[in-house]
Design a protein that fits this description.
CATH architecture of chain A: 2-Layer Sandwich
Order of helices and strands of chain B: EHHEEHHEE
CATH class of chain B: Alpha Beta
Shape of chain A: globular
CATH topology of chain A: Transcription Regulator spoIIAA
CATH superfamily of chain A: STAS domain
Number of helices of chain B: 4
CATH class of chain A: Alpha Beta
Strand order of the largest sheet of chain B: 1-2-3-5-4
Oligomer: heterodimer
Radius of gyration of chain B: 15 Å
Strand order of the largest sheet of chain A: 1-2-3-4-5
Number of helices of chain A: 5
Distance between the termini of chain A: 44 Å
Distance between the termini of chain B: 19 Å
Structural class of chain B: alpha+beta
Number of strands of chain A: 5
CATH topology of chain B: Heat Shock Protein 90
Number of domains of chain B: 1
Strand content of chain A: 25-35%
Largest sheet of chain B: 5 strands, antiparallel
Number of strands of chain B: 5
Largest interface: A-B, 26 and 30 residues
Chain lengths: 121, 142
């Protein structure tokens, strides 16, 4: 059953786009958590989450992004959010995430932002 | 005055969350409740049941969760019962996202979301050892 799925794609070998689809809840969140842990083990810290095909998120899903963000940023990376359906964004908004995270409607802008950051280092 | 209700009894497994969401969603759709409200009501019940499964039952899948939905005029009442551990923390202060950032926290937002979404929330531990949660939402119709 395709309750929740993850696929990933690398850009320039150091930026990774994780495409999530389906339902991200307390049951499926550990799958995403494992995926992100694996990226950190591989020292990939520039992460874009593509929400285009995500139907649903609960706070357990949001927790995955919060758990590792400080480690990711202290390694020069970030988690950026791309193309959230309105009802998914609303959950992030209710919990104040826009204060701490960048949300993009344009994937290229998110990628460019990572490249600018790399050039500035 | 019209009062109709439906009930679901389901095991305390994280896999049940999907069925619980569909149950809530179908009940509300059938009664023409506004789509934007349905998404939020579904989220509130998911958060409540996630907490019951994780904390009250501590991921023991042999427990039972009973959910009763009733609609009277524009008042949707959701009663949720379980036989797990009593709820400990009823801290519902607005979570400070910066504190979560510093402390690497990844949870604890459920009750806050429930309170933010619903118009009324009450919790009782009954004498026969049940957690009894009542959520009420004043709904609009399409």
């Amino acid at each position: 059953m395709t309750e929740f799925n993850i696929s990933k794609e690398f850009v320039d070998n150091d930026i990774v786009i994780i495409k999530v689809s389906g339902f991200l809840d307390a049951h499926t969140a550990p799958k995403l958590e494992d995926e992100i842990s694996q990226l950190l083990d591989d020292k990939k810290y520039k992460i874009i989450i593509d929400f285009s095909s995500l139907n649903y998120i609960s706070s357990a899903g949001l927790g995955v992004f919060m758990a590792n963000i400080e480690i990711i940023r202290s390694n020069g990376g970030d988690i950026k959010f791309y193309n959230l359906p309105d009802k998914v964004f609303e959950v992030f908004d209710m919990l104040g995430f826009p204060m701490l995270y960048e949300f993009y409607k344009d994937l290229n802008l998110a990628i460019e932002k990572f490249k600018e950051q790399s050039n500035a280092e | 005055m019209q009062n109709d209700s439906e009930q679901l009894s389901i095991k305390s497994s994280l896999e049940s969350l999907k069925i619980i969401r569909e149950f809530i969603s179908e009940f509300c759709i059938k009664r023409n409740i506004k789509k934007s409200s349905i998404d939020k009501i579904v989220l509130a019940v998911d958060e409540a049941c996630s907490n019951i499964i994780k904390h009250a039952y501590q991921l023991d899948e042999s427990g039972i969760i009973n959910i009763k939905l009733s609609l009277e005029d524009s008042t949707l009442k959701i009663e949720i019962e379980d036989y797990g551990q009593p709820f400990k923390n009823s801290n519902v202060n607005e979570p400070n996202i910066n504190d979560y950032y510093k402390e690497h926290k990844k949870g604890g937002w459920g009750l806050y979301l429930i309170k933010k979404i619903m118009n009324f929330v009450s919790y009782d531990r009954t004498n026969d050892g049940k957690n009894y949660l009542v959520l009420i939402k004043n709904v609009e119709f399409e």
